[in-house]
What we know:
Elements: H1 4-12, H2 16-28, H3 36-48, H4 52-64, H5 72-84, H6 88-100, H7 108-120, H8 124-136, H9 144-156, H10 160-172, H11 180-192, H12 196-204
Amino acid sequence: MISTRFLQKAADSGDxxxxxxxxxxxxxxxxxxxxxxxxxxxxxxxxxxxxPRAQFYLATCYDDGHGVRRNVARALHWYRExxxxxxxxxxxxxALSLLDGKGLPKSTKEAVRWYRxxxxxxxxxxxxxxxxxxxxxxxxxxxxKRAVSWYSRAARRxxxxxxxxxxxxxxxxxGVRQSRSRCRFWLSKAARHGHKEAAKALHGxxxxxxxxxxxxxxxxxxxxxxxxx
Length: 229
């Protein structure tokens, strides 16, 4: 393991990757008290030099007020910079902001563009939410077969909301042939992970429940700010 002293020396000499790693260690390493102020300062240096992960982490600092004064506009600026540099979580965060019009002008078409980028990088939340957009025709032409395809990708990667969405699609025949067994399979998976609505839908299978008025869930704004390397 590289010592903190070595990282400090490299970071202070202008090594942008060392600046990112030192910031990460100061904020999220095994320390009694995170030093968010210094971490944000090092991430700012690396972010300014184009380091995507530093840009993302600096955005989370502005988002949550860690080491800096909370500033949503600055957070979104750095999320966008990280997104343009291929950071999949930043791309997802920008898509959510655009879809809901929170912090950025609402644009479903632009949101879908960023969902696609994030989903292509393997982001499971983006894969599920892209399915949601196809299901309801948000920012693109409604295509429930494609919705099921994206739900399936996310569900196979254990995304609980996607499992719930997919279960409802099999129950109601949206984008797939109705299948009670496949419906029960996916709803059961979601219910085992604590999804309450999935448990209710599963219970309703034996009681002739009607189709739900709303078929599925997507990400919420509270999920924007997850911290991930």
